[in-house]
Description:
4-stranded parallel sheet; 2 domains
Amino acid sequence: xxxxxxxxxxxxxxxxxxxxxxxxxxxxxxxxxxxxxxxxxxxxxxxxxxxxxxxxxxxxxxxxxxxxxxxxxxxxxxxxxxxxxxxxxxxxxxxxxxxxxxxxxxxxxxxxxxxxxxxxxxxxxxxxxxxxxxxxxxxxxxxxxxxxxxxxxxxxxxxxxxxxxxxxxxxxxxxxxxxxxxxxxxxxxxxxxxxxxxxxxxxxxxxxxxxxxxxxxxxxxxxxxxxxxxxxxxxxxxxxxxxxxxxxxxxxxxxxxxxxxxxxxxxxxxxxxxxxxxxxxxxxxxxxxxxxxxxxxxxxxxxxxxxxxxxxxxxxxxxxxxxxxxxxxxxxxxxxxxxxxxxxxxxxxxxxxxxxxxxxxxxxxxxxxxxxxxxxxxxxxxxxxxxxxxxxxxxxxxxxxxxxxxxxxxxxxxxxxxxxxxxxxxxxxxxxxxxxxxxxxxxxxxxxxxxxxxxxxxxxxxxxxxxxxxxxxx
Length: 474
């Protein structure tokens, strides 16, 4: 039997029944992804297994470095095949790391390869996969259809012209791709040179001359409107923690002027400025009926030498341990007092904070929206079996798992869609175990609907892309 078989991760008869009858066939609404809209617009055909699988994958780079692989085989000048061989040689060392599961699940689902990848099988895997990449149905658009992706949301800078999203919308009837408004660079007043370069880009994108803070806000509002016109219904922020320091517009204006003059803001000023901006964006989101996403708890670029040498997003980030709940509740409360709290998804990276955040969001639920404030799925270091179970258990025990909007890929790789399958197997196994233990009723209609909702239908309702998703072919 292949390692990845039909009942992979499904330990009970109930789990197997729930997965095969109710979860497996559900389509995908991937509402947070770092995939390239250009690759989709151009229907990119990958030349080899390196391009589709290893290009830009910092998860694999971290594992390779931990296995003693030299940097030239991760981000350096080694050939694509040399880099693949270095990865193949690392795979046996990833036992009990989620990469071992993902690697073999991806090989099975994309190339129907049940082979365990190692240095001995590497050449055969490389040749077989490359043959299918050249002649099979594995271009970017074909991949989205293959995995029944109904809606995909990318992550986009406010200065992006969204021309690739427009091209996809004009030419594609099988799925929808929408942008997500992620203005992280608008906060970076502590890096004045970088901030000013981005403000210049914002001027060009918005056609607003930015000499004052009021004009800066107007330019951001213009881009928010433009994204809305192009189908965007989500914003996103990657934060150490949710900023909620008191800050008037006058104070924020002074910090802005300081950064524009070329003087970096202090840590205190940066947090005050970010607090003002975060509320500003939340009000824009609420007025348009958008969903706000907060990704909390990543400590980025811990290795400053490697940051200088090869840049960010290369595998040198880790879980942070900042206090989260007081500032998060203060932010949500400020909006709630003004009746301006948008639908919000809070993703937590430090599992020590799971229960605190899961209970915090419970204080801000309100009708008519079921699960208005969501405890987002386990992400980054927590999108593995144990991390997924932790998030599901914390939400189950303190809120309503029945209203959860489910999984996302959060990935830069077109090989990552089996993460939805992985999540669904973990979910069904967890529920199946409760049924087998007599902790949940063995009621097929109740359980089947519960599973289907979490896999796709809750997200369809919550994100209000449902009309688009239903019009697409099955």
